[in-house]
Amino acid sequence: MSIRNRAGGLSLIELIIFIVVVAIAVTGVLIVLTTTARSSSDPALRKQMLAIAESLLEEVELMPFTYCDPDDANVLTATSTGGCTVASNAEGVSSPQASETRGSLATPFDNVWDYNGFSMTGITDIGNITAIAGLSGYRASVSVAAAALSTLTSASGDAVLITVTVIAPNGDSIALGGYRTRYAPSSP
Question: Residue 95: what pLDDT?
């Protein structure tokens, strides 16, 4: 039999060897993927932590950032805390007025600084009344600190860094930060 007359194609032995090699390679790849998925943090927990942190950060950033408490008649015209008639919790005072609480309809948090030191175990709605189903194991906290930003110095008090930290039930945590600036004379 000459070389020209031989038929082309794979023999049964070559085909079996090919299948075994491919099966070993696929098994190796699947083992690596399984090990990686098991050892990584749960993506659902991470996404949930991020959603909670983004929501709370946005809530704080949307609050007025004024020299005076927003209940003060001079809130829109005061150019310093000296122009305020109502006790102010601006300029770095670390807690809200005693009567203000998150979600209170009568006396809610009404200034960025009110959130400094705020924390909750179990995530609630913005009214701070209704617990959100499935989020009871999460914890969140907020800190507000004077910050230097571009030409603004931290001593001026015209910029703050808001940091929201969320801790998942498994102990993983995530922190998001955002800046809020005051516009002259004030920023309701």
Answer: 45
